[in-house]
Amino acid sequence: MSKGVTIIGSGNVATQLATALYARGCTIVEIGSRTLAHAQTLAQTVNARATDSLQKLSPAGMYIIAVTDAAIPEVTEKLHAGDALVVHTSGSTNISVLNKFARYGVLYPLQTFSRKRPTDWNTVPLFIMANTGETLQELQSMAALLSGTIIPVPAGDLAGLHTAGVFANNFVNALLGVARDLAGEQFPLLYPLVRETVEKAFAAAHPRDVQTGPAIRNDAGTMAKQLAILPQELQPLYTQISSLIASDSITK
User: Fold this and answer.
1) How many C-beta neighbours within 10 Å does residue 68 have?
2) Domains of the chain: residue spans and CATH
3) What are the CB-based long-range contacts (under 8 Å, 24+) for 174-182?
4) What is the pTM of this model?
5) The predicted structure's pLDDT at residue 157
6) Residue 151: closest CA among 189, 110, 93
7) How many CA atoms lie within 13 A of 110 on its CB side?
8) CB 35 within 8 A of CB 91
9) Residue 154 has what pLDDT?
């Protein structure tokens, strides 16, 4: 981007995007955040200016809105971008939220991000969409700085894919938290099991084809014993997931 990129946001996605683009030679013009201290912390790492005012943003060639889904409409309302390209990074927010701008699009990275954990952008699928073919080409050129896996999609939203990501990432991580509580200090010993589970699921035609465990076998005795040792608040979750697995076995 000849005029550089401004990142609006200072959270996990904004931090990883800003640092990755900067490392690849992109000029980061400014970091905007409602909390100035957060903007300044990130800006210092990418040699950019910092601001807590959308009305005072410097001119840029692209504005990347990397904030929470709920904050996107407010940012859009306050942002004045001229003829710059404006994109958001949400997988669950329709592209139409940006239609006040002349050129706009979506840059959705299908990955989980943390501020302090480095991201291997080469492995991150980037889903892009834009309001015109020309804008899509510009966005694709920028995305190519980050990843070799770029998937243009029709205008609309990516809610289905984002929801799949919630099941595959957020829910799985929450269940791993339960496993950690149950296994205690032996939790690291579950890693080979988790790795094999994931590898089998992606190697199979469908994950349910390689489902194992007491629910798929309708082993009521084992399930009753496991249910009994669980805290009461987790028992409905165990029962519901077991029912889901059992219903899959019926349809196979």
Assistant:
1) 12
2) 5-157 (3.40.50.720), 160-251 (1.10.1040.20)
3) 178/234
4) 0.90
5) 72
6) 110
7) 19
8) no
9) 85
